[in-house]
Amino acid sequence: MRIKKQNTKDDGLIKFIVIGIIISIIIITLINAVIAVYPLYMHSIYENNAEDQREDQREDQREDQREDQREDQREDHQSCNEYKVQKYYDAASEKSIISSGIAIIGIAVAVWAGLNIIQVLERGEVERLRGEAQRYYEERREFNKLKFLEELRGSNSPACKYFEKIFQKDIKELDATIYFQLSFVEHSYQAVYKDQFATMKRKQGIAFLEDSIAFTKEVLKDIKIKTTNENVEEYLYVRIADFYFNLGYVYEFRREYEEMQNCYQNTLENYKCVAKMEHWSKDIVDEIIKRYTKENINMRFFILNTVAESGSMIISSIINGAPNYGYANQTQELIEMSFNAFTHITDYLSQILKRKEDIEIIPREVYFRNFYEFLRRVEQISQHNGGKAVLNLDHQQIVSKELELVQNGMAIIYSGKNEDPPRYKSYKESIDCYLAIIDDENYYMSINEKLKLLEKAYIYSGDALRKFSQLPEFRKIRAQICVKLNEVMYQKGVINRQMAYLTEACELIEEYRQLSSCGLNMITEIKEK
Questions:
Q1: I need a labelling partner for 299 at 20 to 30 A (CA). Which of 105, 136, 215, 500 fits?
Q2: Is residue 11 predicted with pLDDT exceeding 80?
Q3: Distance in angstroms between the alpha carbons of the first and the last residue of the chain
Q4: Rounded distance between C-alpha atoms, residue 64 and residue 429, angstroms
Q5: What is the pLDDT of residue 218?
Q6: Sign of the C-alpha dihedral, residues 426, 430, 435, 441?
Q7: How far is CA 154 from CA 61, 147, 188, 194, 516, in A?
Q8: DSSP readout, 73-132?
Q9: How many Cβ atoms sit within 10 Å of the Cβ of residue 296?
């Protein structure tokens, strides 16, 4: 509507200029006509006066007495007449010059008017093009924003849901280019997240992740110049940390532990920026809890898990022989930080599970599994230190904690509310934990307690066989469970069930042998899915 009003105003101005030009041309034409007739009129007056003078001269010539005087008078009259004629023609020339000047002025006015018409037309065109460009820019900005939000909806990650909620709002500082850059970053992250490392752990995965890190850093640098919006910086720091975090898993798979350690140190550095800390310390846990309140509880758990797991993986790199530098020199701080972060998450979620409250919390089994793996690494570090405890927990307390974590993790899987897809590691580590506790001579359990654990492990292994039927390993694990159940049944004197477990164990071992011989090359890839 604004463009139509501008066009109406311009049309009126054009009409006014055109009328002015027509009036100017008429006035100039009249002036030129007057100037052209005026010399002829003056010349006719001069001719009439000259005739009368000649008549008087003839009468004077009749006088004989003063012939010489009359001759002189004729000469004088002739000179006077020539002067008057010259005067009239000079006046005509002067008027002609004035006419020419006015004509030139008229031409200049016409040119000026023409230029104004062109300018008005150009201004109207510019305004129209400016309006179209503005509409195109707004459409492109909206399209890029929707594309970014669509990328965020690509997974059930708590971080994706958190940022989708934030960026649904209209952030005026973000232009079309920024939204395009953010959508590209998120597209790269989703490619990593969805891949589940089946291909990322190959060599090309390293190049992809390194390129993603470099690009995201450039976007962060560019955006800091354009805007000081805290949410955009937060998003980019989180994504850089995520890329480093996943790259660390790739290096762990390749057994390149120094590079692995560097990746998790960089992960912590970027989350230090998210927590608004100048220097890294174990207080990062408290800062994250303060930053992400209960309204953003899922984002809090997501970041705390990533931070705690980064510390846990640095400890793993030390166990596997990586040199002790950087954060590795602060091993005790790392252990305390990870323990506090994991404890906060799992205690909170365990209370929710017990109360069975229907609140907007995303339960994730991976939080409990990561805590379990961390405790096992802590025990390994303790062995490296000559059995010296690195946490204020003895062996009995650590094993009890591990058992609690595994049971709560599996409870989330069977609750039907788990946001994580069923994974090989979830079942494998749970069953391994049960079998290790049963075999742990330093951890006392009664026969009935062992039987309960074995029966749970038997159920889990059956589900794993159905979900991961291609893997021979679960047949071997289930066979081990059957053997242990046979032993418990023997101790309890239940002979019929004892023989049933032995028969199943023999069948499973034969299936394992056959499947292993024809499908070993597929095992590694299947495990990671």
A1: 215
A2: no
A3: 57
A4: 159
A5: 94
A6: positive
A7: 126, 11, 11, 9, 36
A8: HHHHHHHHHHHHHHHHHHHHHHHHHHHHHHHHHHHHHHHHHHHHHHHHHHHHHHHHHHHH
A9: 17
Place of tokens 């069930």: 497
The Cβ of residue 140 has, within 10 Å, a number of other Cβ atoms equal to: 15
Task: Map tokens 């694990």 to a residue.
Answer: 477
CB–CB of 233/286 below 8 Å?
Answer: no
Residue 522 CB partners (closer than 8 Å, separation 6+): 470
Nearest to 235 by CA among 219, 214, 211: 219
Cα–Cα distance for residue pair 516/467, rounded to 1 Å? 17
| Residue at 469: amino acid letter | S
How are the residues of the chain apportioned to helix, strand and coil, as percentages rounded to the nearest 5?
Answer: 85, 0, 15
Residue with token string 């480093």: 244
* The pair of three-digit structure tokens given for residue 496, joined into one six-digit string: 């019929």
DSSP one-letter string for 261-296:
HHHHHHHHHHHHHHTT-SS--TTHHHHHHHHS-GGG
Q: Is 230 helix (H, G, I), strand (E, B) or coil?
A: helix
Write the DSSP symbol of residue 443.
Answer: S
Q: CB atoms < 10 A from the CB of 481, how many?
A: 27
How far is CA 328 from each of CA 227, 265, 311, 316, rounded to the nearest angstrom? 36, 9, 9, 10
Please report, to the nearest 10 degrees, the dihedral formed by the alpha carbons of residues 216, 218, 221, 225 taken in order. Answer: -110
User: What digits encode the pLDDT tens for the residues 436-495?
Assistant: 888 888 888 888 888 989 999 999 999 988 888 877 888 888 898 998 898 888 888 777
Rg for the chain, CA atoms, rounded: 49
List strand residue ranges (DSSP E) for 2-91, in order. Answer: none
| 308 closest CA partner among 279, 290, 333 | 333
Contact by Cβ (8 Å): 410, 460: yes
What is the pLDDT averaged over residues 220-239? 90
At residue 69, φ and ψ (nearest 5 deg) are -65, -40
Rounded distance between C-alpha atoms, residue 72 and residue 74, angstroms: 5
